[in-house]
């Protein structure tokens, strides 16, 4: 049976597209895409791929907790094994996070723990870092603090780059790293270290 994945988005959805183009198919199936806003362009990408698409905006519910409950019910009805936050620009409440413990994965445009939260690329450029990167991690109840699955860095040295160029580079890395992480999890190759739940053991046949 296919490993069932849902993707949460807020905007363009290029990471969703990368997942649809690479892992979606045989052993992994993207069974639903939910957006925090009706204008999210990624919804069209989902529909074009024949994937169920839905909007869960806080404004359509009494409050965030009510939105999270409705979203959680929808995800459960889809029977998801994993929920991927791919450019989902809102915080999820602690109840939803607990409900999907170890089944929530996020992609973040920095080398965590540096530059968590919103505007990570802007934060990194303002700091003047010479190495940047991307992190794919499980979600816990902190902001971008969950166990790291994969990270990949790239250099800004010797010249600082403009934001558009860096965003392009970040996307290039994300579009490889996120599908790879989903595949590793689907294949059962990501295990928690029994001595320390923060640490993950990754069994990856591919060489870096
Ligand atoms: C991605 O770069 C992702 O890392 C970032 O939003 C972008 C979404 O792009 N996420 C965050 O900053 C989360 N804090 P996309 O909609 O084209 O996939």
Q: Overview of this structure, please?
A:
This protein is of the alpha/beta class. 33% of the residues lie in helices and 26% in strands. It has a 7-stranded mixed β-sheet. Strands 8-9 form a two-stranded antiparallel sheet. A hairpin with a 2-residue loop joins β8 and β9 (196-202). The radius of gyration is 17 Å and the shape is globular.
User: How many DSSP E strands?
Assistant: 9
| Distance linking N and C termini | 29 Å
CATH topology: Rossmann fold
Compute the number of helices.
6
Q: Tell me the CATH architecture.
A: 3-Layer(aba) Sandwich
Q: Given the helix and strand composition, which structural class is it?
A: alpha/beta
Structural domain tally: 1
Summarize the structure.
The chain is an alpha/beta fold. Helices cover 33% and strands 26% of the residues.
Q: Which features does this protein show?
A:
208 residues, alpha/beta, Rossmann fold, seven-stranded mixed β-sheet, two-stranded antiparallel ribbon, 6 helices, 9 strands, 26% strand, binds glycinamide ribonucleotide
SSE topology sketch:
Blueprint: E1 3-9, H1 14-22, E2 28-35, H2 42-48, E3 53-55, H3 64-77, E4 82-85, H4 94-99, E5 104-108, H5 120-127, E6 131-138, E7 148-155, H6 163-186, E8 190-193, E9 196-202
Parallel strand pairs: 1-2, 1-4, 2-3, 4-5
Antiparallel strand pairs: 5-6, 6-7, 8-9
Helix pairs in contact: 1-6
The protein binds glycinamide ribonucleotide.
Glycinamide ribonucleotide binds next to α1, β5 and α6.
């Amino acid at each position: 049976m296919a490993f069932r994945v849902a993707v949460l988005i807020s905007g363009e959805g290029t990471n969703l597209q990368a997942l649809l183009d690479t892992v979606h198919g045989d052993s992994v199936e993207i069974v639903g895409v939910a957006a925090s806003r009706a204008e999210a362009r990624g919804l069209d990408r989902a529909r074009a791929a024949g994937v169920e698409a839905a909007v869960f905006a806080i404004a359509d519910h009494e409050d965030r907790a009510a939105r999270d409950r409705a979203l959680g019910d929808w995800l459960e009805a889809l029977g998801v094994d994993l929920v991927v936050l791919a450019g989902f620009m809102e915080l999820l409440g602690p109840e939803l996070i607990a409900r999907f413990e170890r089944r929530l994965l996020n992609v973040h445009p920095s080398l965590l723990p540096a530059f968590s939260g919103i505007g990570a690329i802007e934060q990194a450029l303002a700091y003047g870092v010479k190495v940047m990167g991307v992190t794919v991690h499980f979600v816990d109840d902190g902001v971008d603090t969950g166990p790291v699955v994969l990270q990949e860095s790239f250099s800004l040295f010797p010249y600082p780059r403009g934001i558009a160029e860096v965003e392009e580079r970040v996307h290039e890395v994300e579009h490889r790293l996120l599908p790879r992480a989903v595949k590793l999890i689907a294949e059962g190759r990501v295990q928690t270290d029994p001595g320390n739940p923060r640490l993950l053991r990754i069994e990856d046949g591919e060489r870096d």
